[in-house]
Amino acid sequence: MAPINVTVMGGRKDYVPAKETLPEVDAEGNGNGNSAKGYSYETLQETANFLLARISIRPTIGIICGSGMGSLAESIVDAESIPYEEIPNFPISTVEGHHGRLVFGRLDGVSVVAMQGRFHYYEGYPLWKCCLPVRVMRLLGVKTLIATNAAGGLNPTYKIGDLMIVKDHINMMGFAGNNPLHGPNDERFGPRFPPMNKAYNYEYRKLAKEVAKEYNIENIVREGVYTCLGGPNFETVAELNMLKMVGVDAVGMSTVHEVITARHCDMNVFALSLITNECVTSYETDDQANHDEVLDVGRMRQDILRKFVSRLVTRFHQIDNASL
Ligand SMILES: O=P(O)(O)O[C@H]1O[C@H](CO)[C@@H](O)[C@H]1O
Ligand SMILES: Nc1nc2[nH]cnc2c(=O)[nH]1
């Protein structure tokens, strides 16, 4: 048999080992990170206690700012910010458009905490670590999660700059067994087999549509199904056409696992996608998705997003308190 020719790669002078430039990730992962068990309840309690000792407010609503949507946190008054680097057990943000800090304070009088910067699977973090802040928020007393994201619009009626209220998701990564709840379950967080059919709170979605009318933006507000892929590459035409066929309206690389984690620990969830680009579903175009465009659309919509989300916080707070 003829020998197989093996080309030895190497000798690239510009190659910088990732370890020198990127943070250490997945310290407790077993290789690929998918089988990592996550931090214990006690470890996360330590993180929560650290934060409680540093802040004067007690947040009840948590906000995750999507790519280029960090300005959502700029409406927060009496703000106390803590960089992720200072928080025990927290990962750090490595993506442009994600500042990397928790901002505590008040939005229209409601005590909130905002993540200015989320963690993504493609950064090298296992899903449980991407979602660690959600559990920490819960331990701080947060009962409602508002997760925002930038997403590609797959529904052909969607336009760049539209806001999509997430009605449901398809957990594509979960189909392959990659789930933030993978591993031993601690019942203090939540049950082994959490239901997901009512993941996105119906009352919140209804209110959001009312607020859209009140603010005269109902023409840009949609409601649809989101899916998260692992990234970091944007999708191929064939992948997008497949997702379209199964009923996906918007595509991103986040949120789904955060929502699963939040529902597991009994948080009420609202999610909002900013449509930052049209998904390219034809071979007959030179259009290409890119992160700069994603960030630009975030900037373009920042005023509307700030007003909309601030108002949602007030309205969600009202109904949460009414149902106590
Ligand atoms: O989901 P967020 O963090 O908003 O960001 C989305 O936009 C980035 C790609 O431009 C990816 O990180 C994708 O997940
Ligand atoms: N996967 C994915 N994530 C995005 N984030 C913003 N736009 C997109 C997109 O088109 N695809």
From TrEMBL:
Cited function: The purine nucleoside phosphorylases catalyze the phosphorolytic breakdown of the N-glycosidic bond in the beta-(deoxy)ribonucleoside molecules, with the formation of the corresponding free purine bases and pentose-1-phosphate.
GO molecular function ontology, one term from the record: purine-nucleoside phosphorylase activity
EC number: 2.4.2.1
Pathway: Purine metabolism; purine nucleoside salvage
InterPro entries membership: Nucleoside_phosphorylase_d, Nucleoside_phosphorylase_sf, Pur_Nuc_Pase_Ino/Guo-sp, Purine_phosphorylase
Gene Ontology BP terms: nucleoside metabolic process
Sorted UniProt keywords: Glycosyltransferase, Transferase
Protein's organism: Galleria mellonella
Catalytic activity: guanosine + phosphate = alpha-D-ribose 1-phosphate + guanine; 2'-deoxyinosine + phosphate = 2-deoxy-alpha-D-ribose 1-phosphate + hypoxanthine; 2'-deoxyguanosine + phosphate = 2-deoxy-alpha-D-ribose 1-phosphate + guanine; inosine + phosphate = alpha-D-ribose 1-phosphate + hypoxanthine
Keyword Transferase: yes
Protein name as catalogued: Purine nucleoside phosphorylase
GO CC entries: cytoplasm
Family statement: Belongs to the PNP/MTAP phosphorylase family.
